[in-house]
Each structure stands twice: as structure tokens, then as C-alpha cells.
Amino acid sequence: MTYIYSFDNDINEGAKGLEFKTREINNIVIYDIKWEFEIIDEMPLALHKHVKGQLEKGKRDFLFNLKDVTYLESLRLGEIVGCLITISKLGGKLKLTNLKPRISLMFEVAGLDKVFEIVDDEETAINNFS
């Protein structure tokens, strides 16, 4: 299923420039995320809200595929961290995959490469969920 969020859409209350598709493999919820470069001061946390909805349905394993993310500013990076905290509190796991070198460097500089499990490719990430 594809979700496209924008401030013009009051129903979704989402973030302009955020698009993600969800799919499920082996009970793992996979988010194919695409963020456009757009800094918005009061951006609702649409991705986080969606993850919480999946947690309410009993899902516990999540994989964020960031292959279409070329830039993350601090607000969006914080949203990913918020997802990890929420998932972890309920005994779940979140892995990240397909980070572009620039995004990978951001995680390293922030020390988040030690907090997140970052896997080079989706297949390996899926196979490593236990």
C-alpha cells in the first residue's frame, strides 16, 4: 500500500514531501521511504503515527528501506529515532537498509550507527530477523 502525505491533505495530517509504501514479508513490515528535501517547522510525524498503528495491530518487526532518501534533516532523523524508541518499548525491532553513503555518514557522525542495526541490503536484513 502506498501512502503519500502532504499538508494539503487534512485527512492524513502528514508531512509534505513524505511518501512511503508498506509491504510485508515473513511478518516484517517493510517501509520503502522517500522524502523530498523540504524543511517544515511543524511537520506532523506521519511515519511515526503509521508505525504506531502497525504496533497496535501486533506487528513487532520493522525494516525501513531508505534507498530513495538522499537527505535527512534533524527533524526527520529524530522521527526515525522516535520510531525506534516506540518499537523497542514494545519488544520490537527496527532495522535500516539501503542507506546512501551520505545518509550512512549522518548516522555515523551522530553515533546512531551504534544504536540502529544498519544492514546493506534488504534480503540480508529480512533473513537476520529472529
Task: Please provide a written account of the structure.
- This protein has 130 residues and is of the alpha/beta class.
- The chain has one domain (2-127): Transcription Regulator spoIIAA.
- The chain contains 4 helices and 6 strands, in the order βββαβαβαβα.
- Strands 1-2-3-4-5-6 form a 6-stranded mixed sheet.
- Strand 3, helix 1 and strand 4 form a beta-alpha-beta unit.
Question: How many individual domains?
Answer: 1
CATH topology: Transcription Regulator spoIIAA
Coarse structural class = alpha/beta
Strand order of the largest sheet: 1-2-3-4-5-6
The biggest beta sheet is recorded as: 6 strands, mixed
CATH homologous superfamily assignment: STAS domain
| Radius of gyration (Å) | 14 Å
Distance between the termini: 25 Å
- How large is the share of residues in beta strands? 25-35%
Helix content: 25-40%
Q: What would the principal axes of the Cα set say about the shape?
A: globular
Q: What is the helix/strand order?
A: EEEHEHEHEH
- The DSSP helix count reads 4
Secondary structure: number of strands: 6
In brief, what are we looking at here?
By secondary structure, the protein is of the alpha/beta class.
